[in-house]
Amino acid sequence: MKFTPGFSKTRMSLLLLALVAGAAGCSKEKTEDAQAAANAAGFAYVTSQDAGVSVIDLATMEVIKQFDVKAVGPRGLAVTDDGKKLIVATRENESLSVIDTATGEVLQQIPVGKNPEFVRVKGDFAYVSSEPSAKGGPPPKPGTEEEDDDDEEKIPAKIAVVDLVAGKKVREITGGPETEGIEFSADGSKLVITNEADNTVTVHNIETGELLKTVSTHEHGDRPRGIKASPDGNTYLATLEYGNKFMVLDKDFNFVRTVDTGQTPYGIAYDHSGEHIFVAANKEKVLQVFNAKTYEKIKDIPTGNRCWHFSFTPDDKQILLACGKSDAVFVIDAEKLEVTKQIEVKNMPWGVVTYPKAMGSIATK
User: Fold this and answer.
1) Domains of the chain
2) CB-based contact 202:186 (threshold 8 Å)
C-alpha cells in the first residue's frame, strides 16, 4: 500500500482490520444465508439397511451428514411433529432408535419386538409394524406361500405403540402375520394395516386395538404392502405385490376396484392435491403416475433397482425415491415427471421422509 501525506501506520492498521472484519462478516453472512436456505427448504432422512441414516439438504440436493443409529438394519423411519427427533426401526436389536436431528446423537433405544419394519408417528406416539414370522432374505415366489401350512409362518404380528415422551412401549395391537404398511384414518380413530403373510388389510380401533374389519386381498392379489389414504380421507389404496395391482377401498373400507400396475408394486402415495397417485413398481424399475379420479396411467418414469419408498419435498416440487440396489436416491421433477438427478446413498437405501413433513409412501403432509 502506498503511503500518502498524513496517512499514519496506525490508520493503515485500522483500515486493514476493518477490511478483515468486513470480509469475515460477509463470510459469516453467507454461511448464515446458506443455513437459512437449507432450513427453509428442509431436510430428507434416508435409512440404509446396511448402514445408518443419510441426511440430504433439500436446498442443494446433497448428502450433508450421516447419523449412526447405533444398531444394525435400520428400515422404517418417521420424524416427530416438531422435527427435533427422528424415530428409526432397527431390525437386529428389535428396537427404535430415537435420534436428535440437530446433533445426530442417539438419545434412546426402545425395545418394540421382533423384526420391526414400518414406523408412523402421530402426536406423542409411534406405531411400529413387525414381522415376527419373517425368515429374512428375498420373499418367496408367487404361489409358494399358499402351499406352506406351517403354523409358525402365521404368527400374528404386533403393532407396538410407543409413548415417545415416556420413552417406552405402552401397549400392542394385534395385526396379521407379517404386518407391513400402517396408515391412519382421516379422523384419526382407526389404524389401517397391510398384512402380507395372510393377504389381508385390517382396520383397528387406534385406542383399544379392537379389530373392526378384515379385507381379504387374495382374490385380487397377494402380499399387500403399501397403504395410503387420500388427502380427503374418502379413499384408501393398498399395493398388491403379487398381483401387480393396487386395490381401491372407499372411506368405509369396502372394496371398489383394482388398478393394474407394473411388476411388484410397493410404495404408494397421493400428491398433496389428491389429483395424482404415484406407485413405485419395484421389478418394473419405474415410478408410475395415475390419474386419481379415472385411475388411468399417465406416465412411467424410469428409475433404478429395488425402488421401494419415496417422498415429495415439502414444497411439493420434487420427489425423492430410494432405490436400494442402485445405491441412490433418484430426484424427480414432480411437474415434468422426469428424473433430474441421482444422489449417491450407499448400503441399500430403504426409506425416505422429510422435515417439514411431505406426502410420501411412508409419511403424510
Assistant:
1) 49-135+152-355 (2.130.10.10)
2) no
Residue 24 CA to residue 217 CA, distance in Å, equals 64
Gyration radius (Cα) of the chain, Å: 24
Interatomic CA distance for residues 94 and 113, integer angstroms: 5
Q: Is 177 within 8 Å of 153 (Cβ atoms)?
A: yes
The per-residue pLDDT for range 164-219, each reduced to its tens digit, is 999 999 999 999 999 999 999 999 999 999 999 999 999 999 999 999 999 999 99
The whole-model pTM stands at 0.87
Q: Work out the number of other CB atoms within 10 angstroms of the CB of residue 316.
A: 15
